[in-house]
C-alpha cells in the first residue's frame, strides 16, 4: 500500500505557522516512504472562507519550501481538491448512512435545542437528547418530503468506549456517553467538517492522518464514521501542539503566528523549516541543525516525543543566525533583495517619500522603520499618552484596535482608514488623536507619510505586531 497523506487547511485567515509544522511532518513522512503529499482546502465554512486566504496559505507553504503532489492549484487524480466543489459527494455518501440507519434526520428546531440545553444546565455533558433518533423511517421520509428542515446526525453508540489507536499515544479511549450525535449534514445541505473530512480522506485514499493534537477529540467521531461507512480507517497520528514557554498554546493574541510575519521579519525559510523539524522531533541526540533531505533520510515517528514543544522566537532567531552566517555574500545579497531591498518593495515606498526629500541620501533614514523589526517606544512615552488619558487607556485602545483590524480582510489604505475611524467612534476617541497614537505605535515616529498608506505598505503582520508591542509597553508603564 503506498503512503498518501494530506494537510487540509481551512482558508479562514492568515497562513498559520502550525500549518507549516503539520505540513512538514506530512511531507517528510510521504517522501520517506515514496508516497504522495496532498493539499486539500477545507472551505465548508462558507461565511469565513476566502480565496485570498487560500492563496496566502499556498504562497506561504511554497515560501517555506514545501510542495505537494496533488492540490487545488495543480489538480490530481482525486480532485477537486476544494471541498466547496465536492458537495454532491457528501450528499451521496450521507444518504447511504441514513439508508442503513447509521445516521438519522433530526428535525428539531433551534428553539427546541435551546430548551433542551437549558433544561440540562449544570450537567457535565450536554449532547443531543436523541428525540429524532427514535423516529420511524416512514415518518422521517414523510417529513423530509413535506419540506421540513432537517440536519443529519450520526447515531453514535450510547454505551461502551470508542478507541482511537494513535501512533504516538497508543490507545486513547473515549466514553461514548460523552460523545454527541454529531451533525454530519447541516440544514442548508452543506456537510460539517467531520463528514467532509472523512469522506474526502476515504475518497482520496489517505493512509495516514497526520494532524494537530487539537483534533484528537474529534477522532472518535471519525472512527465511528469509518465504521458506519464500513470503510477501512487510516492510521491516526496526532502531533503535539506548538506551545509558548509557559506551555500555553501558541496563539495570535500572544505571538505572531502568521507565516507572513516570519517572512516579513527576515527569517530564512530553510531556518524556519529546520526549527519546525525540531518541534517534538529529534534527528539524533541533541543535534538541532539539519536539512530537509537529512530529515527525510532519518525520519521515523519513533523519534517524536509528546511533551509540548516550545516554539521559541529567541531560539528560532539563533537558528536563523546560523543559516544566515553560512550563506556566502552573494547569497545574502540575493536574499536581501527577495526580502525588502528588491524592486517590488522599494517601488511601494518611493511614492510615499519622494516628495519629502531633497536628496537621495535622506531616503534611507526617512524610511528606516519600513525595514526594521520591533520598535523601541521609550523615547515616545510622553507623546504616546495624551494629557487627558492614562497609559492604560491608550494601551487598551491599541489592543482593541488590533482585534478590530484582525476582522478586516482588506488591508488597503481606504479600508484601514474606515476601520480605524469606526473604531475611534466606538471607543469615543477623536479620530485625529487615535491616528497619532497609531502612527507612533506603527513607526515610532511622530511624522510619517500618510498614515494609512504607510500601514498598508508595512502590512498586516508587522502592523499587528507593533501595535500589540506598543500596547504591551504602555501597560508596563506606571
Ligand atoms: N480543516 C482542518 C484544519 O483546519 C483539518 C483538520 C484535519 O487535518 O483533519 O486544520
Overview of this structure, please?
The chain is mainly alpha-helical and 478 residues long. The chain folds into four domains: 4-84 and 242-316, Rossmann fold (3-Layer(aba) Sandwich), CATH 3.40.50; 86-239, HUPs (Rossmann fold), CATH 3.40.50.620; 327-367, no CATH class; 378-476, Arc Repressor Mutant, subunit A, CATH 1.10.10. Helix content is 46%, strand content 9%. The chain is built from 20 helices and nine strands. The N and C termini lie far apart (64 Å). 33% of the residues are buried. The mean pLDDT is 96. The site of glutamic acid has 7 residues, from loops.
Q: What's the SSE blueprint?
A:
Blueprint (H helix, E strand, L loop, with lengths): L3 E4 L9 H16 L3 E4 L11 H14 L22 H14 L2 E4 L3 H10 L17 H9 L5 E4 L6 E6 L3 E6 L7 E3 L7 H11 L4 E5 L6 H11 L5 E5 L19 H6 L4 H9 L14 H7 L14 H14 L2 H11 L3 H11 L9 H4 L14 H4 L6 H16 L6 H14 L4 H13 L7 H8 L1 H17 L2
Parallel strand pairs: 1-2, 8-9
Antiparallel strand pairs: 3-4, 4-7, 5-6
Helix pairs in contact: 1-10, 9-11, 16-17, 16-20, 17-19, 18-20
The chain binds glutamic acid.
